[in-house]
Amino acid sequence: MEALTRIAHASIRVAADLTPAEAKANAAAQMAGLAYGLAAIGPGIGIGMIFGKAIEAMARQPESAGMVRTTMFLGVAFTEALALIGFVAFILLKFA
Amino acid sequence: MKTDDPQYVSVLSMNDQGPAPEAAIVRDIIKRGSIVAPLLIGLSAVFWGVNGAWSSAYGVVLVLGNFAVAAWMVSYTARISYALMMGATLFGYIFRLAVIAAAVFFVRNATWVELVPLCMTIVITHVGLLFWEMRYISLSLAFPGLKPKHVASPTVQDSTSN
Q: How far is A33 from chain B (nearest CA, A)?
C-alpha cells in the first residue's frame, strides 16, 4: 500500500511538471493500460473455472470426454474474446 | 486426496488418446474463416482502401492462427496428461494474448496498417466464427437427441409389408 502511495505521489509530481495536454495523454495511457489489465483478469478467472469444471466432468464421465472437450474449447474461446475486446479497446484508445 | 488407496488414480494424471475434437473444430473454423475473409477484406477495402484490406487480412490471419495454436496446444497436451492440458490452456491464454498484442504492436506504425479495420476484424472474426461454429456444434449435439429414432413399429411394418 505504501508503495502504491509513493507511486501515486511520484506520478503527481511528474504530472505537475507537464503541460495539461501531456498530463492528459499520460493519464489516458495509464488508464488504457489499466483497462487492458483489468479486462484480462475476468477471462483468466473464467477460463480457470471452465477448465476446472471440464476436468470434473471428465473425471465423472470419462466416456463423454470428447463432448466435454468440444464445449470446453468453445467456452474458452468465447471467454478469450472478452480479453481480445479489452485489448482492442486499449489499442483504439491509445493509438487510433 | 486419497493417496493411500492403491486403486486411486488422480484425474490429472489421466490422458485422452482418442481423437482430438479441437482439431476438427478449428478445421471447421478455418474453412468458414476462408469463406468470410474475402467479404471482410472487401468491406475494409471499400471503407479504408488498400491499407484497410491489408490490415483486415492480417487480422484474419492472426485470429485463425490463434485458434489453430490453441487447438494444437490442447490436443497435443491432452495426449500427455490432463494436468499438462490445464497448464497449457491457462498459460496458453496468457501466451497467445501476448503474441497477439506483440503482433499488433510491432506493425502499428507500419504504412500499410489501419488500426480501426485491424481491430474490428480481430473482434468480428473471432466472435463471429465462434458463434457460427457454436451453432453448428449445438445443432449436431442436440440433433441426435431430438431426432426421432427409426424404430420399426409393428403397425408400420404391417402396413408396409401388406
A: 12
Considering only the beta carbons, identify the residue of A44, A66, A81 that sits closest to B21. A66
Task: Identify the band that residue B37 occupies on the pLDDT scale cut at 50, 70 and 90.
Answer: very high
| Entry pTM | 0.76
Tell me how many helices (H) and strands (E) chain B has: 4, 0
Domain extent, residue A86, equals 2-95
For residue A87, the domain's CATH number is 1.20.20.10
Q: What is the pLDDT of residues A62-79, one digit of tens each?
A: 888 888 888 888 899 999
Label residues A56-90 b or e (16+ Cβ within 10 Å = b): ebbeeeeeebeebbbbbbbbbbbbbbbbbbbbbbb
pLDDT for residue B154:
46
Chain B interface, mutation test: which of A63, A80, A85, A94, most B Cβ atoms within 10 Å? A80
Structural domain count of chain A = 1
What interface predicted TM-score (ipTM) does this complex get? 0.74
